[in-house]
Amino acid sequence: MNELGVITLLVFAAALFGIVAIYWLAFEARNTQKSISRRLTLSREHKDQAEVLDALRHERGIFSSDIPTIKQLNEWLTQTGLRLDRNWLLFSVFAATAALFIVFGFVFDFGIGSFALALFSALVLIIIYLRTVRRRRIDRFAEQLPDAVEIIVRGIRVGYPVSVALDLVAREMPDPIGSEFGMTADEISFGQNIKSAMENLHRRVGQDDLQFLIVAVNIQTQTGGNLAEVLLRLSRLIRSRSKIALKIRALSAEGRISAKFLSLMPFIMVGIISLVSPSFFAEVRHSPAIEPALIYAAISLVIGNLVMYRMVNFKF
212 near 237, Cβ under 8 Å? Predict the structure, then answer.
């Protein structure tokens, strides 16, 4: 890589980071100042509650199919909470592929190999981004769930039916739990049974502790009982599980940081050496042994990451 290529790559990286910074400052800061619930915002725009429910439904997912695999993919995308569409996904793949193709082109020369690697890397990065957004949304939902259950308990104790108690959560709690419980309350109000509405809630969110709430509500609607007392104990159970999860996360933090550092270090070193001494890898770049070595390194890296992932992630 010559000096002009290095300068071009650095300018491209600086421009990319600048665009990302402007996006976070201009858009994300404004999003945090919006209404506490997307459903409440739409309620001000649409007087008919059915239109609000339809609008929220159409914002979720991008596929509509009865094929199990596609249906599961659509539910996974719905659980990210993003307002996605196919054009946005295609544009994201195209933009990421173009950017990575330029980077890989300077490193490995422009060609079909660099394009294939850029396309694969772009897909992986987008999946990682969506997975991260989904995980953060589920974690945020888990933090809010005990408070939401306590609001339902207070509503039931003063004599409200379950659907109205769920609507109280929608009005009192911020997103993501506000809009999700609001959609569930609307579905019940429009004639759907409580069991189906709660199962739809779990499919939209994907949070594990939510199943306890669904089972408690379903049993109460079928056999009766003191739902308020059951949900109060459930709230305490969820809080205890959250504390244990946070303790585990704190104890495994060192392992996660080590895994990330060890995974990124080879790429960082190659990038630094290529910038400091562009001709350092010139002699081995076209060697017959370079491809088997890279394949072995990639397989070893994947196996190592899987082992480290299993070491720092626990189910309880």
Answer: yes
d(CA 107, CA 275): 10
Q: Which of 172, 196, 193, 192 is nearest to 182 (CA)?
A: 172
Q: Are 272 and 307 in contact (CB under 8 A)?
A: no
State pTM to two decimals.
Answer: 0.71
How confident is the chain (316 residues) per 10-residue block, as mean pLDDT?
A: 63 70 58 52 60 62 70 82 78 85 74 82 88 90 90 88 86 83 83 84 87 86 80 88 83 82 84 78 77 84 83 70
* Contact status, residue 74 vs residue 211, Cβ threshold 8 Å: no
| 86 burial via Cβ count (<10 Å: 0-12, 13-18, 19+) | exposed
